[in-house]
Amino acid sequence: MKTVAINGTIRTELGKKAAGAIRRSEMVPCVLYGGDEVVHFTTTLGDLRTLVYTPEFKTAEITVDGKKYSAILKEVQFYPVTDAVVHVDFLRLIEGHPIKVQLPIRFVGVSPGVKSGGKLIPQLRKVLVKTKPEQLVDELLVDISAMELGQSIRIRDIKVEKGIEILMSPSVPVAMIEIPRALRSAAPGTEPTTA
């Protein structure tokens, strides 16, 4: 599990006016929820960059005025015109307390369908799961080594570690092997095309 270190400074003034002043000083207002305290702090975009602008799932170790918190990124608000980060919400990780997170999917193995000319078409990039912080993983592996031409793999086919529960319908497709046009006429059960 990759962890990003974030150094924060406690925010004493809250509200829109204070948040605007923070942004003008090139800092980002943040909130850390979870447990019995809510921590309002500011940090630099430099500290947030490797956490926000990545498809990878990472945890954050936030240090605010000498206190350390383990957390995950919950929500990022972007300015609609420039895509600048204007606010970040973090969820504190507390051992034993279940959390819901979107984990990225990584396909592993070599599909016989791809070897015979098909194309792997991912249908999902992330999967919603529920787990405890101590059982958290940074990605879900989806084995495609049994997928033939025209086949799809579904949520129910994903093997997960003990303690991880997928919160999506088992029938949702994750990926499929598309049959190229050139092979369609040769595929069993298809009508030959006439010019």
Word description of this protein:
- The structure is a single chain.
- Helices cover 13% and strands 42% of the residues.
- The chain has a six-stranded mixed beta barrel. It has a four-stranded mixed beta sheet with strand order 10-7-9-12, with no helix packed on it. Strands 8-13-11 form a three-stranded antiparallel beta sheet, with no helix packed on it.
- The longest helix has 9 residues, at 16-24.
- It is elongated.
- With 195 residues, the protein is mainly beta.
- It is built from four helices and 13 strands.
| Rg value | 22 Å
Strand content: 35-45%
Q: How many angstroms separate the termini?
A: 55 Å
The SSE string, one letter per element, is EHEEHEEEEHEEEEEEH
Rounded average pLDDT: 86
- The helix content, as a percent range, equals 10-25%
Uncertain stretches of 5 or more adjacent residues: 190-195
Strand order of the largest sheet: 1-3-2-6-5-4
Instruction: Indicate the overall shape.
Output: elongated
Structural category is mainly beta
Biggest sheet layout: 6 strands, mixed, barrel
Number of strands: 13
Count of DSSP helices? Answer: 4
Helix and strand arrangement:
Layout (H helix, E strand, L loop, with lengths): L2 E8 L5 H9 L2 E7 L5 E6 H8 L6 E6 L2 E12 L6 E8 L6 E10 L3 H4 L3 E4 L3 E6 L8 E4 L8 E3 L10 E2 L6 E6 L2 H4 L11
Parallel strand pairs: 1-4, 2-6, 7-10
Antiparallel strand pairs: 1-3, 2-3, 4-5, 5-6, 7-9, 8-13, 9-12, 11-13
